[in-house]
């Protein structure tokens, strides 16, 4: 250990291989300073480069993902691991660790018959342990130049000879210089031979003091802590996702078993086929999640360890170790940022479901149903920490539109509600034709259902049920979506005569907004309870999946009046946005992370804002062809908008994508 620093502790985490999690065997150090068993590293390199063995010239570190090249790229890939230097310090610590598994007693005292005198020091040269008295009276008299380790703790008042200083791998001299030009720790010979012409060469102690004075070490430690928190969230998130798809698998298997009992012998083969597909898909998704989780967990453990060790090194003013840990910490922080950025491009919630065709006529290939893997795009957990892209960095582009007017329509459409179901179908409410219409996510028309009354806003009740607010007569219509068909499940009529416009669903009850600004709770039997009263019509409502509150759009056009409000079940309300950037708020929706999307009918824009309204931006404007936007629905990175630019535009839904 360097001057001024503590000796190595016997329980250092560096003695474990991050791949096999066992004690290091033949420890090999990569340029990023992460250390692995030679055999583990060789196996990893071979597997990582599988399929590109001929052209590959480098591989990513298993922990920090830094690309690493061997000394001799032409050599067989299976032998690349042998080319990296063996970490002599780690080997010495392992030797000490093995020795310390036995009782640590003073050898000279045992020779004199005192068998249980605790040892405090270990001489690596002699491989003998001493108590403090025997060290001074016997060892130090004849062996002043030995490297001796304190194996019971450290006292900064101890002398220089009690510490073991890391030495240069090339010249076996103490590391005392640091070259900032090459980011290199070296001995006197290294500096004289290779760094005489470098502009920034200082002693390790001076560079360490500079890191402390200019807060670079503290900044790196803070970044490590922040990154470790993100990795911790990712590991927990992958675990939760794994538990979810395990439950999905159990439910699907049970569903398959139940259906199997309803049919005859031919279903034996069909059941086997669909079960095999379920298990295959489950294993595939499970393997992907576990691989991603392991990658995050390795980096998480390393960042935590680096953070802990760098704090200790700084406290003990250990310049050499602090610099080494600072370099490694910087590499790990950059790797954390890169990993989060890479994962955020394809980060999804995964579900595995067994879908059954209810109206079975023949025992065909799909008689036992099908296995569907659903993937919903979402944001990285902990994205507010600065390791993922913020809301404002995502852009939007139009990717298409689809026609909603059907041959049986008697007039042009007026879309007042759109909702996306988990089964990748879309339900649209057509006010002018008094219909609900069903489409695929690509815009293919599937079915329609005539509704009693004029349909307005739509909401999702469960995975295959929607509800629509209607007026004349006022109330709620509950509709099932099964087998690519719409069917009326129930009608709920409201006794107060208020025309129902906006609607959402929470905890088995409907929350309905009216043309006069009243917001009611409506139960299944039609009973109503006033939740809050606004000063103008509430055309659209939605439910915040993050906080569980109801979000309400209020159709005001006077500056300073309420445009968007948050309403809780205990009747507390918070005004999130005033009329300004949004004029005449209509459609409203919210994504899985709680970001809110509002249509400004009279401001000709669609606005996106954070759940607490601290960040607001215009997502779509009139320059994007968005005029009089009425309705919006958000599903993953896709946004569905209905506009009324011209007469024929009423008959289309426009589709935009965030990227």
Structure write-up:
It is built from ten helices and 36 strands. By secondary structure, the protein is α+β, with helices and mostly antiparallel strands. The two termini are 50 Å apart. Helix 7 packs across helix 10, helix 8 packs antiparallel against helix 9 and helix 8 runs parallel beside helix 10. It is elongated and about 105 Å long. A hairpin with a 5-residue loop joins strand 30 and strand 31. The strands form eleven sheets. A four-stranded antiparallel sheet has the order 13-36-35-34, with no helix packed on it. A four-stranded antiparallel sheet has the order 14-15-16-17, with no helix packed on it. A four-stranded antiparallel sheet has the order 18-19-20-21, with no helix packed on it. The chain is 27% helix and 29% strand.
Record keyword descriptors for this entry:
disordered N terminus, 4-stranded antiparallel β-sheet, 29% strand, 659 residues
């Amino acid at each position: 250990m360097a001057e001024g620093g503590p000796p190595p502790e016997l329980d250092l985490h560096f003695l474990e291989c991050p791949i096999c999690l066992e004690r290091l065997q033949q420890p090999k150090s990569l340029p990023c300073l992460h250390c692995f068993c030679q055999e583990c590293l060789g196996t990893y390199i071979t597997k990582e480069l599988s399929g590109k063995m001929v052209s590959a010239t480098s591989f990513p570190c298993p922990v920090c993902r830094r690309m690493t090249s061997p000394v001799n790229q032409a050599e067989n890939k299976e032998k690349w691991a042998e080319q990296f230097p063996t970490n002599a310090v780690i080997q010495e610590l392992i030797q000490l660790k093995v020795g310390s598994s036995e009782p640590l007693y003073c050898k000279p005292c045992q020779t004199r018959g005192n068998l249980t005198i605790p040892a405090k020091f270990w001489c690596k040269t002699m491989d003998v342990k001493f108590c403090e008295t025997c060290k001074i009276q016997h060892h130090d008299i004849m062996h002043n130049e030995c490297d001796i380790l304190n194996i019971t703790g450290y006292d900064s008042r101890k002398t220089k000879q009690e510490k073991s200083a890391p030495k240069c791998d090339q010249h076996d001299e103490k590391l005392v210089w640091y070259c900032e030009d090459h980011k290199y720790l070296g001995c006197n010979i290294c500096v004289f031979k290779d760094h005489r012409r470098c502009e920034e060469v200082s002693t390790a102690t001076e560079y360490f003091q500079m890191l402390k004075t200019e807060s670079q070490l503290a900044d790196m430690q803070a970044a490590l802590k922040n990154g470790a928190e993100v990795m911790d969230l990712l590991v927990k998130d992958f675990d939760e996702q794994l538990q979810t798809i395990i439950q999905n698998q159990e439910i699907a298997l049970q569903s398959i078993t139940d259906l199997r009992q309803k049919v005859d012998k031919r279903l034996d083969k069909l059941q086997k086929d669909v079960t095999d597909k379920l298990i295959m898909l489950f294993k595939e998704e499970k393997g992907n999640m576990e691989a991603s989780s392991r990658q995050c967990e390795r980096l998480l453990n390393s960042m935590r360890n680096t953070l802990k060790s760098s704090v200790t090194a700084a406290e003990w003013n250990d310049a050499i170790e602090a610099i080494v840990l600072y370099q490694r910490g910087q590499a790990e922080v950059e790797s954390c940022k890169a990993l989060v950025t890479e994962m955020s491009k394809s980060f999804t919630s995964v579900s595995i479901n067994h879908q059954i065709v209810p109206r079975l006529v023949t025992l065909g290939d799909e008689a036992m149903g099908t296995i569907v893997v659903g993937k919903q795009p979402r944001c990285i957990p902990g994205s507010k920490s600065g390791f993922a892209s913020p809301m404002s960095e995502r852009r939007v582009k139009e990717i298409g539109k689809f026609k909603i007017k059907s041959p049986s329509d008697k007039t042009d459409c007026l879309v007042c509600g759109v909702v996306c179901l988990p089964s990748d179908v879309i339900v649209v409410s057509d006010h002018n034709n008094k219909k609900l219409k069903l489409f695929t996510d690509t815009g293919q028309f599937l079915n329609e259902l005539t509704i009693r009354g004029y349909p307005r806003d739509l909401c999702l009740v469960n995975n295959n049920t929607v509800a629509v607010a209607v007026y004349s007569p006022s109330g709620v219509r509950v509709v099932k979506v099964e087998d690519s068909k719409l069917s009326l499940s129930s009608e709920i009529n409201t006794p107060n005569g208020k025309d129902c416009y906006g609607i959402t669903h929470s905890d088995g009850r409907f929350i309905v907004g009216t043309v006069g600004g009243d917001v009611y709770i409506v139960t299944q039997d039609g009973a109503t309870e006033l939740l809050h009263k606004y000063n103008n019509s509430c055309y659209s409502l939605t439910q915040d999946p993050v906080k569980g509150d109801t979000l309400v759009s209020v159709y005001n056009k006077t500056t300073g009046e309420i445009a968007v409000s948050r309403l809780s079940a205990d009747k507390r309300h918070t005004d999130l946005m005033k009329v300004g950037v949004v004029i005449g708020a209509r459609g409203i929706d919210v994504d899985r992370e709680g970001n809110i999307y509002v249509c400004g009918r009279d401001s000709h824009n669609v606005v996106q804002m954070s759940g607490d309204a601290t960040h607001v931006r215009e997502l779509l404007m009139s320059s994007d062809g968005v005029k009089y936007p009425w309705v919006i629905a958000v599903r993953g990175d896709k946004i569905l908008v209905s506009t009324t630019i011209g007469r024929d535009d009423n008959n289309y839904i426009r589709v935009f994508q965030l990227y």
